[in-house]
Structures are given as structure tokens and as C-alpha cells.
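Extended Data, panel c. Modelled sequence:
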Amino acid sequence: MPRAARVAEVRAEHLLTDLLGVQGWDCRRPPNGELLRQQEYKDYPHLFDIFRGRSKAKGGGDALPEAVLVDRGKLQPLSVIEAKATVAELSKAVKEVTEDYGRACIDAGFSPLAIALAGTTEDDFAVRVLKWTGRTWQPVTYESNPIGWIPNRADVDRVRAPGASCELRPSVPPPDVLAARANEINGLLRDAKIKDEFRPSIVAATMLGLWQARGEIRKEPEHILGDLNRACQEAFWKAKKPELAKSLVIDEANGELARRARRIVTILERLNVTVLTAEHDYLGQLYETFFRYTGGNTIGQFFTPRHVAALMADLCEVSPDDTVLDPACGTGGFLIAAMNRMQREGKLSRMQVIQRVKKQLVGFDSEPQTAALCVANMILRGDGKTGVHQGNCFSVKDYPTASADVVLMNPPFPHKSTDTPTEDFIDRALEGLHGRGLLATIAPQSLLVKREKQAWREGLLEKNTLEAVVLLPDELFQPYAATNTAVFVIRKGVAHRPDHEVFFARVENDGFRMKKGVRIPQPGDQLPGIVVAYEKHRAIAGVCSRARYDADFGFAPGAYIGARPMTVADVEQGVLGLIRNRTAFVALHAPDLVALNSEGAKPYWSMRAKSPPAATGKKTIGGYFEIFYGQKSLHNKEALLQGASLVVSSSGVDNGCYGFFDFDALIEPPFVTVPSTGSIAEAHVQERPCGVTDDCLVLVPKQGVPHELLYVAAAVVRGEKWRFSYGRKATPERIADFPLSVGDPLIARVRNYLDRAAKVERAILRNAEDALDGQAVRQTLAAGGLVRGAELEAKLVELER
């Protein structure tokens, strides 16, 4: 094969792999992947037979398409692909892939799409996708124009279905694919020496410029950045926001960026930024993804996840006629959530809703760059005359007063004493609402429960009604912010009645989990059920309920939602975790445990002057255990001297071990320790005499309680730790009613786990004893000068045997 032809073939393979990869196709060969190339067909006779005798040359013979996308399980063809070296050969590629290869598959009883690819460079190529309708091959289209991209797997299956339309609306690629592309862009910006805080602006300006210019920019290094800037500024001028255009500018003097911009543009073009319209929310979702993964957190902006913003719009029942305000709009997530709900509830086309919301979505942000990023976000969704303003909501002259129907917001969480408190933003937001308007805000959990905020909460309810509080998953804003958060809903201008029942909920599963910093969908999403329960005044055990507000409890959902029995499987997993923790503790501290002081330990009930709270129901923590606070004599831990007695504190790790000290008032085991502060409710089972600091609860089993039940109780307490926070400690009264799952099969399994762990721990301790004996021999013999060097080592080896 001539070298030029081989180079073109390799470039075509690279281009095809890139186009497939950006849509989430796995370009490995089956069974791991979904792509077969020509040289691989021979290993799959049923596929090779499809194309036998389908040669393009006169006289017939065997010939093969460039590639075939297959179902990796059934190995059936989903798409056949033919590639040509130049764009001018596109029609030839279309003819061959349909008349030769596509028709061969149809004759064999399959119905793949036919894909023609012409060109070998990332800037000069064309794609056509066609479907067999039963009579002819029809182009797959978007807004009546042939699509210029390879569809993803879900879209291929959708279009291939019998009777399905050839019109295709693009789907957002999977999160891991987008994260990989965003990471590549991030790497290119890093190589160009772009600081973290400037990367979101460059990504936003590039996306907006490409979309505005419909891809018609010069890609040479000397032109590309200037063309993007001009197109981006044109978009701001059209949106009547010229004052923000200067806040979203790419540094044209950065030669390294100019050289890498071509690849950034290519990645975005692969994702169809240049051809899509605001009729589809694809552009906005891409914008949010690339912003998030290219440094959004570095300028203090965190995207409230789309599904949480949608939850808040649902709780406030945003309608197409509502005016929605966000006084601290950031990059616009809540305004977008309101727009989407307006469209859904009004059954409007996207263009209809855009016409209606020009004056109905109002946002403010004091930081010019962030306001510009928000405007770009709105422009890409078609809101060409957006109501987003750059300005401080506390001082702007055009801040709306008593006019909005709904406020949706996530105010900046203060990090310093000089930062504006969250409650000030909430108060300002209420000023923008008319009477009976609804406010839904995200707030740190501390605002809901800390005693120093109680006066503010009480003042809030003197004039307004608390409608709902929803505790959000702990990892929602991780890895950028570890603050536990909740949504609460307030109705303005109606004093909270004592008999009014508030909706309290706790979201454990929001439909996503974090995997390597990427939010991955998972089954079991509770949000739809919580919205229905709120609307229908229903309760779900352990998830949500309605209750009257109690000032002593604050806004904490954990104080109002009753506990439900944990499943046996969950208890079992919790028990296994506790046993692993215990064994790791033994391995780490084996020498200390061998020499542990256990003399004079007494039952804790005999050491206490005050009785615990009265027992509750039989199948509860309080029914099986006496619940005490720890020892006041250990309140000042800093005064302890090193020694041989174990002291347990509120640590959530190392089985609660604080260290080994000179302390004699030891508690007789076994019992459960529960941190009331610190690592709240991270319970441990203590199997050795120890002292317990007074920031822990001590659960002493009542007479006749099986030993295994201590581990069940500790697992249950851990499962309910979501109820507690820095402002809401664990107390005997707050854990006494937790129900316990008790049954002979579970107890038998726990006993088996404990027996197996005990064998491992005994072996660890024996090795520690032997090591200590060996060390003593070494020190004695060496000190007496009886043996030296090799003789000493020989004696130690003998001892270890």
C-alpha cells in the first residue's frame, strides 16, 4: 500500500475513534467494546458472511465496510460505517455504505444505521447518517437538516426502532464522557499557563463565540482567539448586555493558548456546539458540565446540581405565569430550573417559554465575571434579552420589592466573620416577594439548629410560615464544600400558627453517587416520591413526615422524622463494618493491648450516682440498654499522663481510642460508646476495660441481653447519625427510641462473624506477645553482654519458633 494511502487510512481511523468516543461508544473490540474494524471481521463468521460477495469491484468478491458498531452481548450490527479520504467523496461513501453494506445487513435480517464519513482531518470532514425505512434510505435529521455527528448508543437504538422518526434530537453524552472531555480541556488550559480562576471564563467565551459564529471562525493561531472574542461580544450585544461583554474575554496575547485553542474548539465542535439551537437544553447542560470541571469552584461558584434546583422549583410549584427571583444567582441554575418547569407545566415549546420569561426570570450577582457567566448560560438557552443583572442585591436601585411570586436561591455560605451571613440574604429575598409568595433556599444545616440562630428563626416565623425543610445528602457539594445542607420553604407574610404542620424530609438517595468526582446516576432516587408526599400530605417512614414546629428542635428534620427499623441486610453490613474497625484497632494497638491495665474495672451502673432515663419500648435501644453519659473525670483530657489504661473519646475512628493513659476508674466491658459531639453517633463496641470521656454516651446492656446485640445496636445508631449535627447533639432521649432489628438468624450470623474475628485478633495479640518477649530477651542479653550479633539473632529466631 502506498505510504500516502496508509497515512490517510490511519488518520481516518483516528478521526472515527474521536467521533465515536465523544458520544460514549467503547472503541475496543467485543466483548469489552462495541467496534469492529475490517481486519477483525474474520474472527466473527456470522458478520463476515453478511458482506461476502459484496465487493465494490466489478465481478463481485468479498469486501468489508470500514467498521461496524455492534451490540457487545449479541454481536449484532447496530451501524455500518464507510470512510473516504476527502470531503468530496462523501456521496461515494453514502452510496457504498447504503447500497453495498447497509443493504447486505438488511438482506441478512438486521436493521443497522448506515454511516458515511468523508475526510481525515479534524477541521475538514463530513458525516451522514441514514436509516432504512423499508423502501429507501432516509437521512437522519435535526430540524430537517442531515445531522453531522454519529449518534450515541441510545439514539441509535431509538432511530433504528421500526416506525421511528428519522428526526433526532441530540442527547447529552454520559457524565463520564463529558468529564473526560472537560478534563482534556482543563489540561490544555493548564498547559497554556491559565490560572484556575480564569478557566471558566475561557470555556464560556469559547462556547458562546462558537455558537454565535456557527463555527465560522478562523482556526489558525494568529486568528482563533480574536475571532472567538468578537463572536462572544456580539452575543452579549444582541442580548442587550454590552456592559458584561468585557468580563468574558480571552487573552489574545497568550500564544500558548492560541496554539491549543484549535483542539479546544475541536472538542466543542464534536459535541455539536456550533449547530444546535436553544430549542434543546443540550447547550446549557454542556455549559454547566464544562464550567464545573474546568475550575468553577476556584472563583467561589458552585453549581447547585440541576436535580436539586428542579426539586426546589417543584416544591414552590413554579407556574408559567410566575415571576421568579434569585438575589444571588451565580451562574443561573435556579433560573434555568424555573424556565424548565414553566415549559413542562405549561406544555409550551421552548421558544414559547423563552418569549414568556424575558421579564419573569430576574437574577442579581455582584461579581461581574459571574454575572457574565450567568448571562452566557441564559443566552445559550435562547433567553436573548435576559433579566440577569450585575449588581449587589443589597444596594442595587432596581431590586424588585414585593413583586416576585417565587424566590429560588443558594446564598453564598459565609467563610469569615466579615462575610454576609446567610440569613441576611434570606431576609433580603423575602423583601422581593409579595404577600404569600414562596421562598425556597439552600442553607447550611447549622442555620437550622444552632442555638445562636434561634432568635433569628423565631423572628422569621413571627411574620412568615415554615412550609417545608428537606435535608440534602452529605456529599451534595463535595469535593468543593463539605457543609451539610438543607432546603427550606417559607411562605411570606403569614405568621406561623402553632398548629401548622410542617413537611420534614431527609434525602438519602438523590439518584446520583459520586465516582471520582463525577456524579453518576444510580437507582433508588427518592426525590420524585418526596415531591409527591409534599403535595399529597403523605408520610414515608424514615423519609418524611408532617409535624408541628418545636422551637427547642429548630428546623432539624431529624427531630421530627421517626426512625424506621433498618433492614436486616443493612444491619448486617453495619455490623461487619464495626467488626472490621475493631480488628484494625487491635492490629494497630496490639502491643498496648497486651500490656493493657484491666484491674479494678467496675460495671458502669455501679459507678453512676444518677439513673438513666426511663426505659422505652422493648424492641428499642432504650429497651435493651441503660444509657449514660461518659465520665466527668475525663472531661479535661489534656491533664492525662501516659500509661497502660485505654481511654475512649468521641473519635469516629480507631474504635474511639483516644490513647493509653494513667487512669484507674475503668468501666467493665462490654458496652457501646456513642459520640454525642465530634464524630456524632459514630458508635463503637468496647470489649476491653476502659475509661470513656463525657462527650460520649455509654450504652450498658441490661441483664440477659445477648452480646451480639451490642453490635446490632451500634450499627443502628450509626445508621441514624444523619439526625445529628454540630448544633444537635446525640442525647439519651434522642437515641432511646431507635428500633432494633432482633431475630435468632441475625444473632447467629453476628455470632459467627465475631467468632471468626476473635480468632484473627487472638493471633495478632499472640504475635505481639512474642514480639514483646523477644524484645525483652534482646535487651536483657545485650545489656548483660552475654551474647552478641549472630548469636543474639539465633536465640530470637528460636524464641519466635
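The two ends are 71 Å apart (CA to CA). This feature is highlighted in the accompanying rendering.
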